[in-house]
User: Fold these one by one.
Assistant:
Number 1:
Amino acid sequence: MGSAQSLDAYSMETRAAPESRRADAELVEGYLSGSSVSPLLLCGDALEILRSVPDESIDCCMTSPPYWKKRQYACEGIGQESTAAEYVRNLLEITGEIKRALKPAGSFWLNVGDTYQDKSLQSIPWRIAIEMTDSQGWILRNTVVWNKVKGNPDNSADKLRNMYEPVFHFVKCKKYYYDVDSARNPPSKAEVRDGRAVSSTGVSGVRYRKQIEGSSVLSAEQKESAVRELDRALEDMREGRLFDFRMIIKGQQRATHSDSESVSGRAKELNRNGFYILRNNPSGSKPGDVWNIVPEDTQNRGGHYAAYPEELCLNPIKMTCPKEGVVLDPFCGTGTTMKAAMGLGRKSIGIDVSSEYIRLSEGRVDGKQSV
């Protein structure tokens, strides 16, 4: 796939702002117009380099900025502010530039952890998310809980061990690119036992049939219709067109979301027909909002102490960046986002203030170094 391109020769310290921005802009525009999926890596201040990215040119941004007062990174910069409010303000400058650079159909995935101060959690992730929605007009579509499965040891005697971090999914417009089918979990196929179809969760239709036949709520016509649709669902399972389903029967199960017809179309259907069937998607279930992903092995982090795992990037990129699209990470660290994007055939631009991290990223995406 070729080698990663970088701007290491143009360091922050040696460039005047207008000249550096012109150089960055030329590199970015050249990269965007090219066909290579090898990442473009730029060394410098995230805010300054972001200002050189053309309007509405990025399909997907995924990043994890330095956490406030959490770690000492290779270079001074964001995360070392004296107050949480200042940290949030500085990050909002970054997110404002990201919003400008995103296409109308673009998405922004933000992973950020919390910090204790004076024994109290500072709610840093939510301060950022609320400011982004209230002050910058972002739309928050999901809060993913990244369950780290094996959190770090914690010897505190008066609080629980931290096991998760949030990953926020923001969009700038109500209509945006989203390919959920690309990330569906493979379905568990139904089995045929003694001529009877049984789903992986044990649905065979026997209980539903008894409930229909014994119902004192359904009319004779509704019972006949319910049995007919139940048989159709079971036949679809037997023939491999359906892997699982649920049947909601009036007087037996409640409507899926609400019993009120004013807020639930399913409640209307239940009252009108006496039943409805929920068919599982034959392509599999879509991902939920809790992701069980083990953090990077500490022995494989090189000189970086907070690399997030490549697996965390895969579904966001697959779902919200088209195959010909471009991924951006303004705090790319050791290049995890870039490596994931390149592996999925997407172009990517990574920015980091540390030349050391840029070199680690170059080695990682070129396959020369494990970080």
Number 2:
Amino acid sequence: MAAKSKSYRFTFGPWNISTGRDPFGPEVRKEVAFAAKLREYKKLGFDGVQFHDDDAVPDLDQLDAAGIDKAAAKMKKMLDGEGLFCEFVAPRLWEHSKTVDGGYTSNSASERKYALERSKKTIDIARALDCKDIVLWLAREGTYIREAKDPIGSVQRILDAVNAMLEYSKSIRILGEMKPNEPMDQAYMPTVGHFLALCYRASEPSRVGVLIESAHSILAGLDPSDDMACALWHGKLWSVHLNDQNGLKYDQDKSFGSVDLRRAFNQVWVLERAGYDGCIGLDVKAMRTTKPGDQTRHLANSKEFFLRLVDLARSVDEKQIETFRAERDYEGLERYIVLKLLGK
């Protein structure tokens, strides 16, 4: 059981303060300047920033190594000025014209080379930001039709890319962020379990783990707390993206706990009981109808809901829980939990 006094560090990405654009409509709010977004972090009670590579270094494909280092150093100075740290950096391998058929798993050798070189640039940026964690969201590592790629070879190509990054830098950790679909129809490595299996085939398994996003587990028909528990058992849950989701739809990134409060409680309870010491990342989006003046409320709300559920988890009577279990009184246990959620 985690210590009652344990505190958490909170992070989010600049993409979580958005224009409200979606696949069916344009922007509904004006873009917020990056520096202005950074100033919101401490106001909201957050400690660190999650980055895509080009969040930290815009237009990085047009820069040489010296230019990338200079731009990353400038970003590090901005972070230090706001009292923030960089939690992770992730290569953005799903928007470039060379990654339309995937990056690491593309059928084109030149496109696979681009993806790996871009990933190495991400590592360089992370080093400049004093960050050791590289997150891989394998967005286009999959297919629209299964015959389009060699599925066995594709898994090997993902492992090859992971090993190449581990070889490039001996100080980084790689965190796989798995998602079963979207933008691809079907993804390779669709679940946490798939990537955990890959971890142990890596050249240095101790430096490969996972980031679990609530919505991604839900999209796979799984309970996020069970995915978290499995990864925690392996000692490989190194970050989380907490949010919520209405069923097996597109990735909604709703405020944490806003759809299924009991499901959210179980995630918090698992993290608490395991003594999870990673960051609490909140990957949530403001609703499209949100007014510009309220476009950070989803972040404040999610943090508040999480902390209230922490208090709730810490108020659970462990001896009572064990009594219910020993007596197989699951009706009694369910009543106990539901009444807790009702504030009784």
Number 3:
Amino acid sequence: MTIVRSDFHQHFDTYARGESATPLLMLGDALAVLRDLPDDAIDFCMTSPPYWGKREYANGGIGLESTHTEFVANLAAIFAQVKRVLKPTGSCWLNLGDTYFNKHLLGLPWRVAFALIDEQGWILRNSVVWNKIKGGLDNTTDRLGNIHEPIFHFVKNATGYYYDADAIRANPRKSKIVNGAIVSATGVSGVRYKRQLELSTALTETERQAALAALDQMLGQVARGEIADFRMIIRGQQRATHSDSALVSGRAKELNDKGFYFLKYHPKGSKPGDVWEILPEDTQQRNGHFAPYPEDLCKIPILATCPPDGIVIDPFCGTGTTLFVAQSLNRKSIGIDVSEHYLQITEERCWRLL
């Protein structure tokens, strides 16, 4: 592993053709380095830029601007280059904290997000809330404590981007046999639904028979492991999810037309939601860097949106958490930073995986 200082395009080409997942480290200003990289070459970006006005990072750079509007503009210029080097199938994940100025919470993460959406055409697929659980002490007496930060998932194109939902699903609980009857992971046996259908006055006889047949089919799918679980919504018994209006809800229309519908649960488990409860990193390289984010923050994004043979980039790599996780998941990665000291820490961390 070496730290390169020039000829970034050439070093990238050599690295991309190679087999090693050891990170490639590039010393320099993120904007300048990115400009030297080829178009449509990177599969995945995840980064946490320096926050505005929060700390004095080594070697200056982003975050030390005199105004927050200048900070937003500088970050937007960098992400314009990220978009250029990202493949059409690529994803970009951005973690950014907010800042108070003259008692105002500035909303900087969303100012940056809107700049990327409105001015550069990025498509925002998710806004994740990182709940830090045990955030730092807050001694203010005139507002609530701040214990969350947003993480934005951007793509270049509305369709066709790489996404492997199965790679991040939770292991589902299994169905079982109780007294000769199949029971789902959460105890659904169909008995209650059958009773509701038999007693229903809101269904016609034709609808009732169709619903009973469909329920038997659903229980069969559970028994065969084709679905992990299900819920049945029956007219007159349960409310349609989201809306009762057939004009705005397809499920409400199905309930009106058929008298029932099913909510099916994936056999490989559920996807993570958009609130992540992850502890801040309290021990990882605290002597070398002011704000390394935790490794667990990177795992879902990389597994879901970076193909196994893909290349990861972090234009503000700091002490290399993104790269460390990418290497542990056998993805190639490139880290850019203005601080040689931080890159040396990254180098030492990643060597431990070899």
Number 4:
Amino acid sequence: MKVIDLFAGAGGFSLGFHLAGYTIVGAIELDDWAAGTFKYNNPEPTVLVGDITSFSDDNILAIFNKKPDVILGGPPCQGFSVCTKNAGDPHDPRNSMLKEMIRFSKLLSPEIIILENVPNLLKAKTRSNASVIEIIIKEFNYLGYHVYYKILEAISFGIPQIRKRLFIIGTKKMLNHPFPEATHSQFRNLFYRKQTPTLWDAISDLPLIDACEGSEEMEYVEEPQNEYQALLRHNSSKIYNHKAMMHSKRTVERFSVMKWGQSVSDLPEHLMPYKRNGNGEIAKSAYDQSNRRLFPNEPCHTIPASFYANFVHPFRNRNFTAREGARLQSFPDWYKFLGKPTVVSQKLLKKEGRVEEQHLCQYNQIGNAVPPLLSKAIADNLKEQI
């Protein structure tokens, strides 16, 4: 079955469908670096780079004349805000990027539509107090789709990360079980499921590097130590994107006193971060979620777009590398991320007019992605019924 991935990012959502045997035929992505990653790892599909709203109906019909069976999309819906003024209620999904999913579905009439978003979407209301999820259901019902939705947890599908995401599935054929059953549990032998790998299960075979070490391309130094590592190393001869952050000596010292579970807020005062533009003055408060040293024998916390500053390696005095984040997201090792590893604050880039640098770095691309193994579980389940 043919798949088009809208708001594709680096391609985690469609990668799961590829691994399940679907054919990816197209994608649309706004960011140049994320689109570059998608194209590098998916050389065959047609990848359109640009604002999805800039492609007219005629453009879409001409480019994707062989209509897809599946349309995927994780549209950005932060507050359902829109850029244009006087566009009506910004909390109404019909005035947000969600309307593009509706437009493409109407134009291309796939058998399956799948939207991915944050669980809080289920609580969202318009200014007139209408339920956003009910509006979405009605819109797709009008196009002839049966609609199902559910919050899925990554740890329930063998992914070593506590991550909950909402999936909305529309199908032309009514389904008896639209969502996959859990295959794994964080706790041993619960309901006879497999045990979800831990953080250390996911990354322990990668070269143990310190701050300022590593490279964008490295050799393996040891054999895989468990089933999860063997799965992600399949068809890969090298390790990509395993370059540690260029921490200062003071940052390394700061991390060296942290125990598992501690963050910047637990540091002695003399090791607290300096105030920004404070001429060396120590900050009196610190964000509790910043730079937390994670427990090795538990699943990782949710990998966000800025995870290079969120987590400290369980044993080394540094933040995670991009590849470690990719492992925790369940990307295979052969999947290479392009663009710079990190960029400075998007707000600062915008303020200074550095438009050419306003892109999604490797960490952003990884943190924004749908975990491929979670996507694969959805794809496998649907394949049996369509």
